[in-house]
Design goal:
heterodimer, A: alpha/beta, Rossmann fold, six-stranded mixed sheet, 14 strands, about 45% helix, globular, B: mainly beta, OB fold (Dihydrolipoamide Acetyltransferase, E2P), about 60% strand
Chain lengths: ~475, ~70
């Protein structure tokens, strides 16, 4: 199918909206748009960061997911207590595949679940005593942990427990940081507020801890911020930066440690990958410590080259020369990959619906493979994310904010993309519809996708999914035209 | 009154950030923009406007300051 024109796309949005009652239709219409690159500000065409409508199927998460699942969870040498009933922690355990190095249960705790397992009596009488006891037990059982964070679940805020007081007291007793995080799930409209709360907690309880201690710094100290090492992403990124001659002193927060986080204010430049979830802390460091930050994009060779040059622009001629060397070193390898996969993928059309940074960042990687992104949307973006996305997307492509299950399905039925990239909740619907699907949250149990190493895997995975012979087997023989 | 943060973006323009509402936008105009007198009414790209008490320009950006909302766009 050829690309839709602007009128056709607008008609498609109207058609999809038709089933809603008047009020819901009016509200949802603001969240769906046809991309127009000439628009300077997204506000004119799309509304974002608003409460989801009751009754429609949203794909968003909650503040707890944003804090425990995204920002705090990957810090490997801390223990993150899911404070409240057992489910929130149990069902989100290790689902995000934040890889790390270490011995789980001894000095790293990434894939473990710690919870205070609230019962009725804790709701009635309060859970502060239980939390204090729990921290004591952790200290006894896992003495090599470097700190504890208390991730509140909904009931904590509802019953008004004073986790700050417990944390302060416990921190003195065990002589390690204990960080209370007020990330109750009901706060905010999506996980986005959870990121903000988590960043604020890091700012208030962690970041300044080593301000006075000595640190041997070099002029080339950088940090990777907002890379959660999904399938090893941060490692692929780190390789490139170290090849350039930079020293990565902290990874936030994939494969990160609390010591790295405390040392971050000693860096010369903060490299920010996921803008949505970690711009808060970068802003804070820019103001308090005068560390500039830069948003970069390590998806696909074109964008990687751009980013490498821009990163090198912050440093002296040595790094700039190294940057060119790195680009030259990988160029033939990347050309080989593109030569191999482009003929198999060229002209294929992709629809994305993810969170954070990917709806705009991966566009470049798909374009490198000759594919076209015909629709994109964010779960929890703000207006500034769409400002950036508009420039990346082609004209007359679809934009959808906080898309509902129904809308997404209808769009896919009408636009008929060759590939859909979204999360696990969408995966099986589309696979059953016979449309190749990749999970773009967890890289479908593959990865890394960042960096040069990641692009090779990205290209292979896309080919593997799109050109899989199974898609032609979906129609049973008796339904096939003779 | 709300706390806002003003920084320069990569194009050298002023950028406005309101942490409370996670609102981020470029500033299209600032009433006073000299080293001695800085602030006044600021207009945002999204159509909103805020007022900063005129003051000597901050030595270093980003800079957090109290601002009064005159007319928010949404």
């Amino acid at each position: 199918m050829t690309a839709l024109t602007r009128e056709e796309t607008e008609a498609l949005i109207q058609e999809v909206l038709e089933v809603y009652p008047e009020k819901a239709k009016k509200d949802r219409a603001k969240h769906l748009a046809v991309n127009d690159q000439s628009i300077e500000q997204s506000k004119k065409c799309i509304t974002s960061n608003r409460k989801s409508l009751p009754g429609v199927m949203t794909i968003r998460g909650c503040a707890y997911a944003g804090s425990k699942g995204v920002v705090w969870g990957p810090i490997k040498d801390m223990i993150h207590i899911s404070h409240g009933p057992v489910g929130c922690g149990a069902y989100s355990r290790a689902g995000r595949r934040n890889y790390y190095v270490g011995t789980t249960g001894i000095n790293t705790f990434g894939t473990m679940n710690f919870t205070s397992d609230f019962q009725e009596k804790d709701i009635v009488f309060g859970g502060d005593k239980k939390l204090a006891k729990l921290i004591g037990e952790i200290e006894q059982l896992f003495p090599l942990h470097k700190g504890i964070s208390v991730q509140s679940e909904c009931p904590i805020g509802l019953i008004g427990d004073d986790i700050e007081a417990v944390s302060k007291k416990a921190a003195k007793e065990i002589n390690k940081p204990v960080v209370p995080v007020r990330c109750e799930g009901f706060r905010g409209v999506s996980q986005s507020l959870g990121h903000h709360i988590a960043n604020d907690a890091i700012r208030d309880w962690v970041l300044g801890n080593r301000d006075t201690s000595a640190f041997e710094s070099t002029p080339y100290d950088v940090t990777i911020i907002g890379d959660y090492n999904i399938g090893g992403d941060a490692w692929a990124t780190r390789t490139i930066l170290e090849d350039m001659g930079l020293r990565v002193i902290a990874q936030w927060s994939g494969d990160g440690t609390i010591a790295e986080m405390e040392n971050t204010p000693k860096a010369k430049l903060n490299l920010l990958h996921c803008y949505r979830s970690m711009n808060y802390i970068s802003r804070h460091m820019e103001e308090k410590y005068g560390i500039p930050y830069m948003e970069y994009n390590f998806f696909g060779p074109t964008k990687i080259e751009e980013s490498i040059r821009r990163i090198a622009g912050f440093f002296d001629a040595t790094i700039q020369a190294n940057a060119e060397k790195v680009i030259a070193k990988y160029k033939p390898i990347m050309e080989g990959i593109i030569a191999k996969y482009k003929p198999r993928l060229e002209g294929k059309r992709v629809m994305l619906y993810v969170g954070g940074l990917r709806p705009r960042h991966v566009i470049g990687a798909y374009e490198d493979l000759g594919m076209e992104v015909v629709g994109t949307g964010y779960e929890f973006a703000h207006n500034d994310d769409y400002d950036r996305t508009i420039k990346e997307m082609g004209n007359a492509t679809l934009l959808y904010d906080d898309v509902t299950g129904f809308e997404f399905e209808e769009f896919v039925k009408k636009v008929k993309p060759d590939l859909v990239g979204s999360g696990i909740k969408e995966k099986f619907i589309f696979q059953k519809m016979g449309i190749p699907f990749r999970q773009m949250h967890s890289w479908d149990y593959s990865g890394p996708y960042h960096g040069y190493d990641g692009f090779a895997i990205f290209a292979r995975d896309m080919d593997m999914t799109l050109n899989n012979p199974c898609w032609s087997k979906l129609t049973p023989p008796w339904k096939k035209a003779a | 009154m709300a706390n806002i943060m003003i920084r320069r973006d990569s194009n050298g323009k002023y950028q406005f950030y309101l942490p409370k509402r996670d609102l981020e936008d470029t500033i299209v105009s600032m009433e006073f923009d000299t080293p001695e007198k800085w602030g006044g009414e600021i207009k945002l790209n999204n159509g909103g406007s805020y007022y900063i008490e005129p003051q000597p320009a901050p030595a270093r950006l980003p800079y957090s300051v109290r601002a009064k909302r005159l007319d928010a766009a949404e």
